[in-house]
């Protein structure tokens, strides 16, 4: 890939990460105005669904709704729904930076789950990264603290749902991106609709209505930018950019809610990030080794072919 394309991919991915932080900030703010957590989750996915259908249906038709594996797609969509629902409820009680720091452990959990679910092997560096990730989560959660909030466990549950969602996404790699987005947002909208209307609270003003409309666009835009970014730059290049979300969450928490992250949250986040970077480095080394092995094999085949031709 060219340098300009890679730079464009990084900028797109950083923008997506900023939108993810904006989405969480908006959700927390909407709940602070009196809206129910499931109501906010519903408008987030309903807006995402409408935006995605408006873009894809005119170009691809109803065929975009057809999945190669409906049962796996349903399971993936429910995992994303569980992740968002638990995350939004946790956000109504916890600071943005705490929830964001816990979510950073997702790559570590994905690596751990990939062993039994995908048959992948964990090397020494990956094992150390897993230990670092869990150590960081322990620092953030601080189970020894007398003031441990029960919503921490919702955030951990959200992280586990997200991790399983990523595993299922790998299993559905041959599925079209648009199809995955429609299924994920559509299933969530259908499941949340009755619960949301049962708990429905009238918006307190025009600004609240505006943010209810925008939160779905934040979700759709961020996922679309992630897809575009991965077309322009390698995943190994983009992976560390996700940690910018802690910076964006800290800014959002301070500007909107006047929250300053505690020392344990920042320390735990740094330890989790260290584990994530170690995972990234480990994966990068494996990819480089695979490329070299492939190059050597191709070179050997070409040499053998040339020798045969000379004879």
TrEMBL record:
InterPro entries for the chain: EamA_dom, EmrE-like
GO cellular-component term (any): membrane
Transmembrane stretches, start-end: 102-119, 126-144, 150-168, 180-200, 206-225, 237-257, 263-282
Record domain EamA: where: 9-141, 150-279
Any matching Pfam family: EamA
Domain of life: Bacteria
Keywords: Membrane, Transmembrane, Transmembrane helix
Protein name listed in UniProt: EamA/RhaT family transporter
């Amino acid at each position: 890939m060219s340098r300009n394309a890679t730079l464009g991919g990084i900028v797109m991915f950083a923008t997506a990460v900023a939108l993810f932080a904006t989405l969480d900030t908006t959700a927390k703010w909407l709940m602070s105005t009196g809206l129910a957590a499931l109501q906010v989750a519903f408008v987030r996915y309903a807006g995402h669904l409408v935006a995605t259908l408006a873009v894809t249906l005119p170009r691809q038709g109803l065929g975009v709704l057809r999945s190669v594996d409906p049962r796996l797609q349903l399971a993936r969509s429910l995992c994303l729904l569980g992740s968002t629902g638990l995350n939004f409820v946790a956000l109504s009680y916890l600071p943005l930076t705490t929830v964001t720091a816990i979510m950073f452990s997702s790559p570590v959990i994905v690596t751990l789950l990939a062993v039994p679910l995908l048959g992948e092997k964990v090397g020494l560096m990956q094992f150390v990264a897993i230990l670092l990730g869990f150590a960081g989560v322990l620092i953030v959660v601080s189970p020894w603290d007398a003031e441990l909030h029960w919503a921490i466990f919702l955030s951990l549950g959200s992280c586990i749902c997200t991790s399983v969602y990523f595993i299922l996404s790998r299993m559905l790699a041959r599925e079209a991106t648009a199809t995955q987005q429609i299924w994920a947002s559509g299933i969530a909208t259908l499941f949340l609709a009755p619960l949301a209307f049962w708990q429905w609270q009238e918006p307190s003003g025009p600004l609240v209505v505006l943010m209810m409309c925008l939160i779905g666009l934040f979700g759709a835009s961020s996922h679309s930018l992630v897809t575009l970014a991965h077309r322009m730059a390698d995943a190994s290049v983009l992976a560390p950019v996700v940690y910018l979300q802690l910076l964006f969450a800290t800014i959002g928490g301070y500007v909107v809610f006047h929250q300053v992250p505690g020392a344990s949250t920042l320390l735990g986040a740094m330890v989790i990030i260290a584990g994530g970077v170690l995972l990234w480095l480990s994966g990068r080394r494996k990819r480089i080794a695979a490329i070299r092995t492939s190059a050597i094999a191709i070179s050997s085949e070409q040499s053998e072919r040339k020798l045969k031709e000379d004879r």
